[in-house]
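Example record used in the benchmark description.
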Amino acid sequence: MTELENLYGVLGGRFITPANEIKNKLQKIKAFVFDWDGVFNNGEKQSGGGSNFSEVDSMGQNLLRFSYYLKNDALPLTAVLSGEKNDTAFYFSERECLTYSLFKIPHKLAALEFLCEKEQLQPSEMAYFFDDVLDIPVAERCGLRLMINQKANPLFVNYCIKNGLVDYLSASAGGSFAVRETTELLIGLNGNFDEVVAGRKNNSEEYQAYIQKRRKVRPEFYTLSEDKIVNVPSPLR
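Model output (structure tokens):
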């Protein structure tokens, strides 16, 4: 067992795929795709349909993107997939300069296929952070699958493991910094965690260059209309 596997094992995370194999998969990844409800939060909805996120998780996804940038001298594609319309997710996408926010698309596989076609990517080049049944069609296709463990659904967790749908099962639940846990894991597997933290802490030249490129990204918003995925203006405007 590696030091990283031991560290996350003590926390309660489970490597369904051995860490060295996840590391090999990670080398092929060009896109990080996140489900929203149950991943960035515990899935509870406000009266208007919104659900929150944590700055702890936000920092995690930013550091992961910086880690990718240091290794590849390029930004990764980033996207939020949601079956619902969520103003907080739109705000997060704009504030964090994600590439895409896809919403009100009940069958998420259609969203994945749309992204692959638009960006000329293979599903094997995408990492997916997910938590529940509606995510299965995407998890079946993606090259790397980080499952958020809600712990109230052991039968579903076993189903995902038995059917080869998950590579790492988080110790933390959605709303309890699971995104931070899983993104830090990937940074650790990238082998540049100390460099990432030092760069962010010191606002290094590399981090400044990364942020300048990140700031130029304006998220594109897509939703389903008459059985077609169409581009729409920012729902926050």
